[in-house]
Amino acid sequence: MSAAQHLSDDDLAKIYTFAVQLGKDAGVILMKFAQARWSDNGSGAQLFTEKDSAVDIVTKADEDVETFIKNAIEKKYPTHKFLGEETYSKGASQDYLIGDEPTWCIDPLDGTVNYTHLFPMFCVSIGFIVDGRAVIGVIYAPFTAQLFSACRGRGAWLNETQRLPLRDQPLPPNAPQGCVLSVEWGKDRKDAPDGNLHRKVDSFLNMAVEPGGRGGKGGMVHGVRSLGSATLDLAYVALGAFDIWWEGGCWEWDVAAGVAIVQEAGGLVTTANPPADVKNAPIEDVRLGSRLYLAIRPAGPSPATGESARESQERVVREVWRRVRHLDYSRPGA
Amino acid sequence: MSAAQHLSDDDLAKIYTFAVQLGKDAGVILMKFAQARWSDNGSGAQLFTEKDSAVDIVTKADEDVETFIKNAIEKKYPTHKFLGEETYSKGASQDYLIGDEPTWCIDPLDGTVNYTHLFPMFCVSIGFIVDGRAVIGVIYAPFTAQLFSACRGRGAWLNETQRLPLRDQPLPPNAPQGCVLSVEWGKDRKDAPDGNLHRKVDSFLNMAVEPGGRGGKGGMVHGVRSLGSATLDLAYVALGAFDIWWEGGCWEWDVAAGVAIVQEAGGLVTTANPPADVKNAPIEDVRLGSRLYLAIRPAGPSPATGESARESQERVVREVWRRVRHLDYSRPGA
């Protein structure tokens, strides 16, 4: 009997309600720390002394929010496993730790650089995983007051009131044309011709240039976006705003909640790296620990092509695979 | 006697109040049209028939908002000149039309691709120009409920309550390291080695790679962001979230409001294209019609380097110029 079978629909609904409130409360803490750094705003000044640097404050926000979430979960669900970014960074290895048991997978602050710079694209990310699959996701970006959430079987939502996706038009018949592509430059900035940065930028260029360009790989996407938050990239895929998100290097705490929300909204998440047979290889759901992600937004069936939603998403996956290079991210020890 | 001298501080304050309300009202219209496209939301359905396409709706939103703004201004200030994106696109040329007289320069919808895709980074942009200088700016992004505004001598504001910049820490002594760079891929996607897309991506790479990389040009910026809205790029420079915005190709209606807000917040806006003598060339305020923009965020003086705010901004301008290529955007007939 799998762990999931111990959790009834009613259990899951209660866990979902708890997770949504936890996300809101964590977001309030993040904003309190952010506001403490605003130039002409004394509201949070008493939290810090003059000599605390921006980096100190951000580290404290990150740690305080993770502790807050961890304590709340341990009190409410003492038998559940807890994995946070801090759990990993303080551990000896970054082995993949998610098994079959009910597991919380948390990023207290995704978009750390944005948070440091007070760019609003930062959030808290709370994922709940059973049998290795993300079944509940809560993402809250407090500066723009956008809450994304989903629970398996209960739909995906913006601010608990608007069902996701907001946009589920058919995927364009000539995709990636007409698509908005979301990508990230990441932290790996080595100037090596075969390093990840150059592999990424080659791939971005293939997706962006005019049709026929780049040796026939030109994808002429409608737009290229970079937010600096993998978690919010996934949230905007679930919303329908980003048609394609392609990225390597994230960890499971960056994506657990987002994958749950995208999948519940009707999107597809598979691997970023093209297989040998791009045209025919089976398209499998991504493994959370893979560090390589390609997400396609929810879409209605395509009257123009006669495809089902899934067929059109798989077509777009293959069109992306045809244009991108392999990325070289693995797990330590993997 | 210049036109500006006809406008007292009190006159300007009244125009500012009027412009802020106009921005809020225009944003409400934009959101009404956006919501009419949401999948499971019938609230605006009566506005459109089944056969209206997404493109029809976006075009109608754009035109309706421009007409709304134009009518309101003509009624309240019949002697003022009005320039909107539609004015240009329907005109015979794209000559630079801004002179010394009081002039409204409007983009009813900046971030059109985002709006089509329901990605929240779209906005209305209202600039008021006197003697060729943007003196009032109002930018409202209704989906994230963020209103940016400024009036010469009255400060720059987020949501009318938080003074901009929110973040005015000294610019990093080793900038562009530590800086968030905002750039856009744009619509020019020709696969020509010397085309604007390749010039841009070369420049992005120089700014992004590790120090010492790319023949010594590696800038190792903290992050690279692309929002798909020049107007909001400038808004986030004014806030302090983006340290550097470098872009070519926009028109004056994309930037008039943003330039007013950045300058009033204490930021610097000059040209994107490096001069022959990068080290010593004077750094002049940008001309609104130039189509080439480099903005540096507001910053406090740097105790570490002994620089004034302006000196540190000029240092960063030169560090950017050293790493970017010339972009080839001109005005028709210029």
Protein model, in words:
Two copies of one chain form a homodimer. In chain A, helix 7 (230-239) runs parallel beside helix 8 (252-265). In chain A, the strands form two sheets. In chain A, strands 1-2-3-4-5-6-7 form a seven-stranded mixed β-sheet, sandwiched between helices. A five-stranded mixed β-sheet of chain A has the order 9-8-10-12-11, with helices on both faces. Chain A starts with 8 loop residues before the first helix and ends in a 13-residue tail after the last helix. In chain A, a hairpin with a 3-residue loop joins strand 6 (156-158) and strand 7. Chain A folds into two domains: 3-163, Fructose-1,6-Bisphosphatase, subunit A, domain 1 (Fructose-1,6-Bisphosphatase, Chain A, domain 1), CATH 3.30.540.10; 180-321, D-Maltodextrin-Binding Protein, domain 2 (3-Layer(aba) Sandwich), CATH 3.40.190. Helix content of chain A is 35%, strand content 18%. By secondary structure, the first copy, chain A, is of the alpha+beta class. At the A-B interface, helix 4, helix 5 and strand 9 of A face helix 4, helix 5 and strand 9 of B. Chains A, B: Belongs to the inositol monophosphatase superfamily. Chains A, B: It catalyses: a myo-inositol phosphate + H2O = myo-inositol + phosphate. Chains A, B: Pathway: Polyol metabolism; myo-inositol biosynthesis; myo-inositol from D-glucose 6-phosphate: step 2/2. Chains A, B: Its EC number is 3.1.3.25.
